[in-house]
Amino acid sequence: MTKENIVELHDVTKIYRQGTIDVPALNGVDLCIPKGGFAAVSGPSGSGKTTLFNMIGGLDRPTSGSVVIQGQDLSSLSQSALAKLRLFKVGFVFQAYNLVPVLTAYENAELVLAMQGMPPAERKKRVTKILTEVGLKDMMHRRPYEMSGGQQQRVAVARAVVAHPTIVLADEPTANLDSKTGGALLDMMHSLNEHHGTTFLLATHDPMVMERAPRVIHMVDGAIATDQTKD
Length: 231
Hints:
CATH superfamily: P-loop containing nucleotide triphosphate hydrolases
Radius of gyration: 17 Å
Distance between the termini: 26 Å
Shape: globular
Largest sheet: 6 strands, mixed
CATH architecture: 3-Layer(aba) Sandwich
Order of helices and strands: EEEHEEHEHHHEHEHEE
CATH class: Alpha Beta
Number of helices: 7
Number of strands: 10
Number of domains: 1
Oligomer: single chain
Helix content: 25-40%
């Protein structure tokens, strides 16, 4: 583990068993993500993007190889230690939103901070600010079923970044948004990246995301085909 990298994958392989057949999802992936990095991971469906994110987020374990987050080899951590790492160090934006349906936008965004034990006054300040920044100031008290898909995605992004995690893993964060709203979300992510040092890794098919990402990692058949950093 080098000082500059907060995420390192070393020869990571993931094989899923389907009946009597072994299905490889990742094939010997080596990857380093430096602190403060901003990268997009592209590739066709089935290329391994989601599995890669599950490895980095500690949601799944590799069949072989190692995943290291800020000096911690995830394979050495218990389930409770992995849960704590996800709570304090990793922000998730899922393609299916994964919002709690009985909670309002405000309460969904506040949930991580409450679980961290942050005082109510600081939680209110953080949540109000982030929901305003993503254009949901007047929708804070609506529940997911009262919001459009794009609005729900904005709540999901707000929830992921409100605690200023070490890294944010976003699976297709602009998929349900129009170009203007998607661009505004990317602006917000870039601002957090620049001013707070939050590291972003985005799985995407969106040309706009790839165009604006300083680094684009392209995956094919569970392996990294190209890894390009722009000038």
